[in-house]
Design goal:
With 76 residues, the chain is mostly beta strands. It has one helix and six strands; from the N terminus they run αββββββ.
Length: 76
Amino acid sequence: LFADGFKEAGFYAISKEQLQEGDVMLMQIRSKTPNHGAIILEGGLMLHHVHGQLSRREPFGRWLPYATHWLRFKDA
């Protein structure tokens, strides 16, 4: 759903080098397809919600091995 629907939802793919606050990182965690997303915050942080836990801010570097897509909303 994430990988197939992001364009229809108004997002477009960017490179990791273009990353800025407000962009989205899609990840593939214990799945055959992307199944997790995070919003990029300033200072190398991201905001995301892990199943069974409260949403939280944390450094996104730990999650880079799971990253599959970097996205930006068309009006951002």
